[in-house]
Amino acid sequence: MTAHDQIRKMLDELMGTGRDGSVPENLVPYSDPRVCRTFLLCCCPYDVLCNTRMDMGNCPKIHDPALRADFDKAQKERDHFFDIDALEHLERFFDDCDRKNEMSKRRLAETQEELSAECADK
């Protein structure tokens, strides 16, 4: 990547994709369903939990800082209610995490019972 490309990328992240008055033809708009709405709101669980025990890998949706800048600019003009979609996504994620935690607790309790039984037999 050349220095010119790096500067262009930094400007896109800072000012959005339409910073020079024209929007590239191949650009996906921030309102596209393929774009991660929780990323636009800075709370994507895939990013937040990266390198933790709950790491889930990469988000299957598009994460582009330039789209976040476009969204922030458009959000000042009118509310897009992406926060409602993000809340629903996070609630599903938390429910999944709670379910995994309960399964782990159950397995741990079973293992402790087995170990206690083995110790009692000795």
From TrEMBL:
PANTHER family in alphabetical order: RNA-BINDING PROTEIN LUC7-RELATED (PTHR12375)
Family: Belongs to the Luc7 family.
Cellular component, GO annotation: U1 snRNP
InterPro entries, per database record: Luc7-rel
The protein's name in its UniProt record: Uncharacterized protein
GO biological process: mRNA splice site recognition
Pfam families from the UniProt entry: LUC7
Recorded GO MF terms: mRNA binding
